[in-house]
Amino acid sequence: MPRPQTEELSQFEKQRLANIAERDALLKKLTLEAQSTGLFSKPSPKPGNRDSSTVSRPKKKPAPRVKKEENEAPIVRRMSSRLRGLTADSEVAKRKADEAFEESQRVEREKRLRKSDFFTLDNMLVSGQKLTGDALIGIDVVTKGVAKPYERTFSDDDVRKTTDKDLKVLREEMSSLELWDQWTPGRIKITPERIYTMAFHPSEAKPLIFAGDKMGHLGVLDASQKRPEIAVDEEDEYDEPDPAITTLKPHTRTISSMVIQPHKLTHLYTASYDSSIREMDLEKMTSEEKYAPESRSIDEPISGIDMASDDPNCLYWTTLSGLFNRYDLRSPNKPMSVEEWQLSEKKIGGFSLFPSHPHFFATASLDRTMRLWDIRKLSHSNPESIGEHESRLSVSHAAFNSVGQIATSSYDDSIKLYDFGKRGIASWKPGHKLNETTEMKPDTVVRHNCQTGRWVTILRPHWQQNPQSPIQRFCIANMNRFVDIYTSNGDQLAQLGGDDITAVPAVAVFHRSKNWVAGGTASGKVCLWM
Hints:
Blueprint: H1 11-36, H2 90-112, H3 121-124, E1 125-127, H4 133-136, H5 139-142, H6 156-159, H7 165-175, E2 195-200, E3 208-213, E4 218-222, E5 245-248, E6 255-259, E7 267-272, E8 277-281, E9 286-291, E10 302-306, E11 314-319, E12 323-328, H8 334-337, E13 339-342, E14 348-353, E15 360-365, E16 369-374, E17 387-390, E18 395-400, E19 405-410, E20 414-419, E21 444-447, E22 462-463, E23 473-478, E24 482-487, E25 492-496, E26 507-510, E27 517-520, E28 526-529
Antiparallel strand pairs: 1-5, 2-3, 3-4, 4-5, 6-7, 7-8, 8-9, 10-11, 11-12, 12-13, 14-15, 15-16, 16-17, 18-19, 19-20, 20-21, 22-23, 23-24, 24-25, 26-27, 27-28
């Protein structure tokens, strides 16, 4: 039976119709308000299709013009000097502006140009104490998974998760390292700008830390100093002093790398993007340029520097343009005595020598490769590597340890470990070649977040060159504000951190023989674990 048309509407249908009516009323109201303010007017109907309900509106009369008072200030309109009958001064102004711009550019270029002068402490000192020789160098020295932000990935429970007794003992030893208790990391500002490179002095008598920053400053921290005692009655008014830190400026641009040769402990060599290598005498506190291009107009930023452990007279370095160089400091003619090889068409970000056999060295490049080289058979016209391994993304650094193992960090979020020691690298003859399919594959790959971005210095592995146990270990910072310590097998030993660390200690370094680890941040501050 058909439903009658007069059937009562459902509750849902009533509500829907009410909503439609409310919407139409609101639109009509808004339209009327817009028309009354002149913001909206109905479009005129098309000819021949005029609706009978349309009412033509009379045009509004223009508002009467108001005559300006004679004493009212006239509106000043822009007018050329020619039309105003004045001598045009635009050329003069333009010339002055160009001269001012050129002068500012010249000053900026002068700031970035390297300075080849011989520096004394007074020439370099930016801030801090004027260290004497005894204050800095004394007789004792001369003789695996990507983590969530800020989350610890290696805990006390992980320390005990091993059946290897030696590994467990080392894990407990490395995990017991604590932040320097004299000052918090926030108070240890060693450089004004972002730290790019760091080094420990090899001395075991005291922790002596050097840090180079983005603008060419060199910071020096003696971590054997003690915080002054605060008397109880002075506690309310006492302003606690910061640690004694000396900040020097031997370079005009980023200090990219530094090294102290084991047989020349009183000399620190620093390399910079200003294309120079300088030698700082830590006893006399002087700095002397040891290498630079012939002309100051030649720009060849240096990305890394190294020295053989048994040769204190030879410098090796790489550049951002892919060059590898060797120079004997005893040569009388610096520019003409430099040996040069073009090893890559792209930036070599890091390299290192095999300490006991320095004719072998490894390079890491922006072209995504880690390459192994033998300088004994290295052609200047067509250099060929012993072997290479290609990663998915660029390789940041390749670090050799004392037994022939290499650790690399890469933007593919991995740390790759290669053991050339067990492949007999010490006995390889000149001309030896490696099978890239089998012998150049990494022995271990550890997952590690290496996405530093623009404001954090690139993460690089750093070996302890003379560990006091058979287990080789290296440190590398992570993006969670910790420093990780791994063995050469990829086993994690420790994850160093602290509640007072507020930035990524991106530049992490090991002391040569002591279990001391330092990390440098983008704000120029230092974290020290001992």
